[in-house]
């Protein structure tokens, strides 16, 4: 039974097409630059660290017209920066302290399924524990959000606030604060991508030091 399922999976068109697509990618790439892989394999020094949504429609390189090697990427549901998330913290630590990226960008997107789920009163199972953090963002901005009658519009505003709060969460980490204290140039930014237009909007919450941070979050 298992063997049959495995066989069906391996033979599915979609699965085969992925590997065929890879062959095509290698062929096309080598045609335009015979040393492409050789050069890329030497190492990476990306100037940007990207925290984005896992949504399949928001690939960091494609929507910023950048090449492999230019953006270090971490993605999860609804582009969250959660203080107890060892995965995110490990990637952030590596990006800031080893790769010495210059910019960290949290990129959300309108129509985000994670944010839409969080704004509802439905239960979705395990993921509710993750989405709870978005409900906390809602609570912080409930006065404004409750006034927006159109649910899609309200959701999109929450998408923006979710990016902004996650930018603040980044700034509150000891990793970012230590970089600033040590004089390491590091910008932290918040963007939103529109699935409908392909356009990225800068939410203009960029921070380059802890000057505007609430005192309680600062480290000496
Ligand atoms: Co999303």
Give a description of the structure.
The protein is an alpha/beta fold and 220 residues long. It has two domains: 1-43; 45-217, 3-Layer(aba) Sandwich (Beta-carbonic Anhydrase, Chain A), CATH 3.40.1050. It contains ten helices and five strands. It has a five-stranded mixed beta sheet. Helix 4 links the parallel strand 1 (48-53) and strand 2. Helix 6 (113-119) packs across helix 7 (128-140). The longest helix is centred in the C-terminal third of the chain and has 22 residues, at 151-172. The model has no long low-confidence stretch (mean pLDDT 95). Bound molecules: cobalt (II) ion (CO). Cobalt (II) ion is lined by residues 53, 55, 78, 109, 112-114.
Principal-axes geometry comes out as globular
Largest pleated sheet: 5 strands, mixed
Tell me the number of strands: 5
Question: Percentage of helical residues?
Answer: 40-55%
CATH H-level homologous superfamily name of the largest domain: Carbonic anhydrase
The name of the CATH topology of the largest domain is Beta-carbonic Anhydrase, Chain A
Q: CATH class of the largest domain, anyone?
A: Alpha Beta
> What is the average per-residue confidence, as pLDDT, rounded to a whole number?
95
Give me the side-by-side strand order of the main sheet. 2-1-3-4-5
What's the domain count?
2
Strand content: 5-15%
Radius of gyration from CA coordinates: 20 Å
Quaternary structure state of the chains depicted: single chain
Helices and strands, in order, run as HHHEHEHEHHHHHEE
Bound molecules: cobalt (II) ion
Give me the number of helical elements. Answer: 10
Label the CATH architecture of the largest domain.
3-Layer(aba) Sandwich
How far do the termini sit from each other?
61 Å
Low-confidence stretches: none
SS content category: alpha/beta
């Amino acid at each position: 039974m298992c063997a049959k399922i495995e066989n069906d999976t391996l033979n599915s068109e979609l699965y085969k097409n992925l590997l065929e697509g890879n062959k095509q990618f290698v062929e096309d790439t080598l045609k335009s630059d015979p040393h492409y892989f050789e050069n890329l394999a030497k190492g990476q020094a990306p100037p940007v660290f990207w925290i984005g949504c896992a949504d399949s429609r928001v690939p960091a390189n494609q929507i910023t017209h950048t090449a492999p090697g230019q953006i270090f990427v971490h993605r999860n549901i609804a582009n969250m920066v959660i203080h107890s998330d060892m995965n995110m913290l490990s990637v952030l630590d590596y990006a800031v302290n080893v790769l010495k990226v210059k910019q960290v960008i949290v990129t959300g997107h309108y129509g985000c399924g994670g944010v839409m789920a969080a704004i509802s009163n439905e239960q979705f199972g395990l993921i509710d524990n993750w989405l709870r953090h978005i409900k906390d963002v809602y609570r912080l901005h409930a006065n404004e959000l409750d006034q927006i009658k159109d649910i899609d519009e309200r959701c999109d505003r929450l998408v923006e606030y979710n990016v902004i709060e996650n930018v603040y969460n980044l700034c509150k980490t000891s990793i970012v604060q230590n970089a600033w204290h040590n004089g390491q140039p590091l910008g932290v930014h918040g963007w939103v991508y529109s699935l409908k237009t392909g356009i990225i909007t800068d939410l203009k919450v960029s921070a380059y030091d802890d000057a505007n941070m609430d005192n309680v979050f600062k480290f000496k």
